[in-house]
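Hi all, a correction to my earlier message: I attached the wrong file for Elongation factor 4. Here's the right sequence:
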Amino acid sequence: MIKNIRNFSIIAHIDHGKSTISDRLIQMCGGLSEREMSEQVLDSMDLEKERGITIKAQSVTIFYVSQKKERYQLNFIDTPGHVNFSYEVSRSLHACEGAILIVDATQGVEAQTVANCYTAVELGLEVIPVINKIDLKTANPKQVKEEIEDIIGINAIDAIECSGKTGVGIINLLESIIYNIPSPRGNNEESLRAIIIDSWFDNYMGVVSLIRIKNGQLKKGETIQFMNTNKKYTVEDIGIFTPKKISKTTLFCGEVGWIICGIKKINNIIVGDTITSVKFPALNPLPGFKKVKPQIYAGVFPTDANQYVIFKEALKKLSINDSSLFYEIEQSSALGFGFRCGFLGLLHMEIVQSRLEREYNLNLISTAPSVIYEILLTNNQIIKIDNPNKFPKLNIIKEIREPIAKCIILSPPDYVGNIIVLCNKKRSKQISITYYNRQVSLIYEIPMSEIILNFFDELKSVSSGYASLEYEFHKFQISNLVKLDILINSEKVDALSIIIHKKNVQYQSRKLIEKMKESIPRHQFDVIIQASIGNQIIARSTIKQLRKNVLSKCYGGDISRKKKLLKKQKIGKKRMKKIGNIHIPQETFFSILNMD
Ligand code: GDP
Ligand code: MG
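and the right structure:
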């Protein structure tokens, strides 16, 4: 019955207890035995296997009998994957009427608490504040409530106090969910409309999608149509996760579940599309999701050119599970054929690269990430550049604009001095600084290119780990930038070019070259690295030739040592690309990221 359904997401800053509370809810109301509980939930690898390649967007259906003895169906969607990208969170929230905002009673409000809560509020969800970890001695729920009211600005008088660890307060949380979160709208008699929240590719079943039925009902065996692409399919199987994958014959209005239509060929973006029935089609699709724009771009290349085709197929499959991933063919004279990929941030880039390597058995090398630049040409045309190599000739550039992020940093007052010093080094502009009881909120405008270097790590290090950061694209702004080319033994290596700020360009390029020098192994000949702007060399360094052959050390020595050494060298060769006759490892491309 629709009036007894509650759909909600759990949002929180990282480590505040999202997973622990989810597990606790499943344990108290879920369809798992004690033994399965420890096998399935706590060991998510099992779940991962069962569901196919990923459990990025976990949805779980549980049944709760309230204190008034009424039975409720609760569908909760764990905010998927990398929580620091509010886009992933916002997709889950689209499928819900409410959100549980968990705040650690010992840590208080942090940057992601604020960002995720605002996303929920913007989407019109009922937000239930929850103070977790009250079992800890240092818990201070009263102060955290004040912080929620001061910093976020939502009412927290009735915030639930609980502990995911001991289970205290969890019943109050369940009761609050059924009283405060509205039941879904719509009814079973309307024409079917279901929104696709997430999809992933399973080698046996093809595309599996997570959907939320907004209107009508969906039956196994019926013919459905994707409203944006007009593609028709037969529903092969549908069901829910409890978290076990359970098949059902019908998904009713308001429910969240999975659907399999035997889709093996992927040509369209599926996430965000609306499913309707062919027999009684709906007139209009549901509004899809706001399209996200990648914030950083990098060239990704297989180290073995023969892997190009597998790589292409892998990207195609992965992108149905990750619609924020962008890619297009890129050809580099140094690295050969690969793809220019767009990511939401560095963490996203790391995750994608390691998923591609792990799940598709690839060996990849990527260039330093670059932000997107807006360039005004002398003919007044504006172009966007996501690749340093596509930078136009200097004489036709009128103006270069770089992306600026708006950042919110939350920190205890003790570290504010350090943080300001750090931000000043990053060409930033302070917008505001507000003191609350235990936390200070600093708002800054910082060039995106500075943030994607190691700003986050530096922020953590100057604040002993206490400061938290959240940022989003704000605007393009004129900036004094140049393209720096790198030459190795006098050959320009296109894949190593970067865009940097003119201020300190001498110093920066010398440091960059030193970092590169550290990363490139010695060869049988001297390797000269140079940095240039246009035709002017501004920095230079030499990697001296190798004197002795590695093996000569073992000459006459025992054979096993020789083998060991060769094996070590082989491992060392991983993620290395031969450019001309010089071996360049992954770290060389990331030198700019490793400068402090
Ligand atoms: P998530 O990143 O939000 O999913 O956080 P987790 O659920 O993984 O929890 C982060 C850490 O906090 C883990 O070490 C948990 O064991 C611990 N934790 C979570 N809830 C509680 C709680 O209520 N009390 C205590 N003492 N520890 C908790
Ligand atoms: Mg977690």
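Sorry for the mix-up. DSSP finds 14 helices and 33 strands in the chain.
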